[in-house]
Design a protein that fits this description.
single chain, about 180 residues, mainly alpha, two-stranded antiparallel sheet, 6 helices, 2 strands, about 5% strand
């Protein structure tokens, strides 16, 4: 396919049968597989060793015959392992323990409210205590040991946990003082 030379706009017919003036290349059908010629100095496909991939030849938009076969036949060498990858794989085995403890205590508070509804305040305070413990653990533990308690900045996470705990405890105590059951 060749683009009209010398004109910036080309007249095309869309799938709906309407004619439109558009700047740039004509639309490509979904079934077509096209390798695009790179701009001058641009590398489109780069191999792991830093060399450019298979050359794109022929007219604009035409694929190079045998390029996929050439790629499939070449043996792929694994990328060198980076220090960050090694550190992420060697995570501490007990990294999620603080989050698990907080979740177990929170579930116990919720279960207490559901099983013994006449003593709902104890369950609410237990749940609030779990959130406060989560905030304290997030504040005291380094990020690599905080696990799922670590979402954003240490201070922000701690503030959110402790504020939630304080709000829940205050709301529970206030509801009890006004006689809500």
């Amino acid at each position: 396919m060749r683009w009209p030379s010398g004109s910036a706009a080309s007249s095309t017919v869309s799938a709906m049968g309407k004619q439109s003036d558009r700047t740039g290349p004509p639309p490509i059908a979904a079934e077509e597989s096209v390798a695009v010629r790179p701009a001058q100095g641009e590398v489109v496909d780069q191999a792991p060793d830093g060399t450019a991939g298979p050359p794109v030849g022929g007219e604009a938009g035409a694929a190079v015959p045998g390029a996929d076969a050439q790629r499939a036949g070449a043996e792929e060498t694994p990328a060198p392992e980076r220090p960050l990858d090694r550190r992420l794989r060697q995570r501490h085995p007990w990294r999620e323990l603080p989050a698990i403890v907080v979740l177990v205590i929170a579930a116990a508070g919720l279960g207490y409210v559901l099983v013994i509804p006449q003593h709902w305040l104890r369950g609410v305070l237990l749940f609030a205590g779990a959130m406060g413990l989560g905030g304290a653990l997030r504040l005291l533990l380094p990020s690599r040991y905080a696990g799922l308690l670590s979402i954003r900045n240490r201070w922000f996470d701690s503030f959110c946990f402790i504020a939630l705990a304080a709000a829940m405890a205050a709301l529970g105590l206030w509801l009890r003082s006004i006689g809500a059951t």
